[in-house]
Amino acid sequence: MISRAVALLLLIYAVGFVLFAVTLGKAAAADSPSTDAAIVLTGGPGRIEHSIDVLRDHKAKRVLVAGADPSVTKADIARRIKGSNKLVKCCVDLGSESVDTRSNAEEAGRWLANRHFSSVRLITSDWHMRRARYEFHKVLGDKYRIVPDAVRSDPRFLTLFGEYNKYVLRRLAVWADI
């Protein structure tokens, strides 16, 4: 009986991983509504560049780079992304208080409240979007309209496997109220 229960749990876990891997986050549709702000989570290629494109396309008025290294400056970002100097100076804020996805959401919540925004575009890698959305929903609740905008990537198996485990463990921790 115990072996059957363990086998069932393993099967559910494996099927969950397959579903997780084939349903990664997607970029926001071209006709998606504009938002007051965009939150870009650091840690993956193309994320900050995409946030600048969102500003250029008037899909958000302001960007918070959450989890930025304290030594990074706006000038560093402007040098890295050609032609972005004016946008970075006026419309990008660097947040260096957060160190993980949950604290990214907490930092973003304070930033959104201080600026009296009501809608946000969440920018992160496709493989990270599910957990990021979960954390942002847990912290922000229904107070803000969140538009997910995933940056496409080609994650390796180990990246997907690690992210799936983080997602499952976080969901279990919340369920167990830990």
Question: How would you describe this structure to a colleague?
Answer:
Helix 3 (74-80) packs antiparallel against helix 4 (85-91). The protein has a five-stranded parallel sheet with strand order 3-2-1-4-5, with helices on both faces. The two termini are 29 Å apart. Helix 6 links the parallel strand 4 (119-125) and strand 5. The protein has a single domain (25-154), classed as HUPs (Rossmann fold, 3-Layer(aba) Sandwich). 51% of the residues lie in helices and 18% in strands. With 178 residues, the protein is α/β, with parallel strands linked by helices. It has helices at residues 2-22, 47-56, 74-80, 85-91, 101-115, 129-140, 157-175, and strands at 35-41, 60-66, 92-95, 119-125, 145-151. It contains seven helices and five strands.
